[in-house]
Amino acid sequence: MELPSSVKKGFSGAVGGTPLIRLETLSQITGCNILGKADHLNPGAKYMIESALAEGLLKPGGIIVEATAGNTGVGLVLAANSLGFKCVFTCPEKVSKEKIDQLRNFGAEVIICPGSVPMSSPDHFITKAKIIAEERGGWNVQQFYNPNNWRSHYETSGPEIWRDTEGKIDAFVAAAGTAGTIGGVSSYLKEKKEEVKIVLLDPYGSGVVYEKREGLIVSRMKTDDEKKKEKPSFVEGIGVSVDTFYGIRHAKLDATLRIDDQITMEFVHYLLKHEGIFVGPSAAMNALVWVAHHLGPGHTVVTILCDSGNNYRSKIFNEEFQKEKGITVERNDLKEFISAFDPLLFTNHWSQ
């Protein structure tokens, strides 16, 4: 039976095409259009599964195994359910209880791994996933190294942003975990409009340093001494830890910007109270107004609202967790966030 064109066909038909939302208070005070692509409303992720099927890496009825901090896992298990696959996920211990419960409620097997071990350890969540996939004959997604992670955003998110802004975009801003989003989106946007500025947001405590060399942004692993000088970030799922991740090698960066957990956590609460948008810390970091403020009025800045606040109720919306981490939620005026901006936090190679 034929359906109206506006009706989505099953789960797969509902994936993608998330709207751009103008963040009103942020846009008004900066004189810019600050737009968030509402990927936290996306029901799931199917691109990598469909690609694996097409490439013969995944057989019908097979097992999908992946290392995840939660968000990718949620997208994978929902898509897997609709396509008839089982999922096994390995997660670092800092992942919130809400995410773990959600993955299990959706039918995935979840294995919690220690967060302090090196990647060379068989107990590291990425290495553990590889071992389980080999033992059970499953397909290991390897989102950190899977070229279809980057490619999915090159073929979907990037074109959607370009279409919905009608090409009127001056900057794209995003934090990175696997860097698939910023790798794919930046590559597409730079092909369409070279002068679009691409800014990577990185929390203190990530494993990679970004430096300006001969006019370009390059990355390198932190030394042991550099790692000791910073506390690990407790923001889940972001902060590139290995500079060979496929996505980051494809990212066309004009600048990087360091942001601490205190600012990020406060901005989560600001967005909820003043924009009515209930998102998690990585989305709040993306929406922070510093890049728009730095560029000045009249620009259009696009970012990704990548995760829901529902996944963090026991953490960033919990007073005991805030006390444990020494986090206060004091800034309430957007001008206070802007005044906290320090241009020295930028590493960039565009003209000032």
TrEMBL record:
GO terms for biological process: cysteine metabolic process; serine family amino acid metabolic process; sulfur compound biosynthetic process. Residues 12-307 form the Tryptophan synthase beta chain-like PALP domain. Its cofactor is pyridoxal 5'-phosphate. The keyword NAD does not apply. Keywords: Pyridoxal phosphate. The keyword Nucleotide-binding does not apply. Pfam families: PALP. It comes from the Eukaryota. Coiled coil: none annotated. Belongs to the cysteine synthase/cystathionine beta-synthase family. This is Pyridoxal-5'-phosphate-dependent protein subunit beta.
